[in-house]
Design a protein that fits this description.
Blueprint: H1 2-14, H2 20-33, H3 52-134, H4 146-168, E1 171-174, H5 176-179, E2 188-194, E3 204-209, E4 211-214, E5 217-220, E6 222-227
Parallel strand pairs: 2-6
Antiparallel strand pairs: 1-4, 3-6, 4-5
Helix pairs in contact: 3-4
Family: Belongs to the GrpE family.
Region (Disordered): 1-30, 42-75
Main location: mitochondrion
């Protein structure tokens, strides 16, 4: 028994020492099969990465949307400018038309005023011509007074032509007594009142001075005598 033990020890001592690589081989084999833990952990999205074409399409869509918004804003701005310009144009047209109407009225008023002053200065001459015709008695207008008749006819013709010319320019003469008008304070001036049994109260029966109208307006009221029975 002792001999066997000594013999086994001698055999083990006589074996060559294995190389370090041989002794490490099993360890390397274990390490190679083992799963090495990563030095650091990284987190990734579970969603798939977008493709290059999809990304480009999305970017182009965003650009188009921005372009549409800018274009819409520009159109709205232009619409506001058009509305503003149209309002200014209409206001200018209205102001111009008002100016035209006002200018026409002022021109007409100036013409009427100038004609009114001329007519007021002229009616005195018309009155004198009328008085000259009335001073000649009708019984004197006979063949024996040929010169007087000729003069009277000439004055009458002159008055007729003059009144016709004045009427063309809006100046008219009126005689309330001839027409038998009722007294109107707007166109008549009552100089006196007297009873007339055969006439109605308020009737003009006598004209002391004839009146004149210029374009329908009273230039000078007629001086008249009015009936008053009560």
């Amino acid at each position: 028994m002792l001999q066997r033990t000594i013999l086994r020890a001698a055999r083990q001592a006589s074996r060559p020492i294995s190389s370090p690589q041989t002794s490490l081989a099993p360890i390397r084999q274990q390490l190679s099969g083992a799963r090495v833990a990563p030095a650091s952990l990284r987190w990734y999205s579970e969603a798939p990465a977008p493709k290059e074409g999809e990304a480009a399409e999305k970017k182009n869509g965003e650009k188009a949307s921005n372009g549409d918004a800018q274009l819409k804003e520009q159109l709205e701005k232009k619409d506001r400018e058009i509305i503003d310009l149209k309002d200014k144009y209409l206001r200018s047209v209205a102001e111009f038309r008002n100016l035209q109407d006002r200018t026409k009225r002022e021109i007409q008023a100036a013409k009427d005023f100038a004609l009114q002053r001329f007519a007021k200065d002229l009616i005195d001459s018309v009155d004198n011509l009328d008085r000259a015709l009335e001073t000649v008695p009708k019984d004197k207008l006979v063949a024996d007074n040929n010169d007087l008749v000729t003069l009277h006819d000439g004055l009458k013709l002159t008055e007729t032509i003059l009144m016709s010319t004045l009427k063309k320019h809006g100046l008219e003469r009126f005689d309330p007594a001839v027409e038998g008008e009722k007294f109107n304070p707007n166109i008549h001036e009552a100089v006196f009142q007297t009873p007339q049994p055969d006439k109605e109260d308020g009737i003009v029966f006598h004209t002391q001075q004839k009146g004149f109208r210029l374009n329908g307006r009273v230039l000078r009221a007629a001086k008249v005598g009015v009936v008053k029975n009560s």
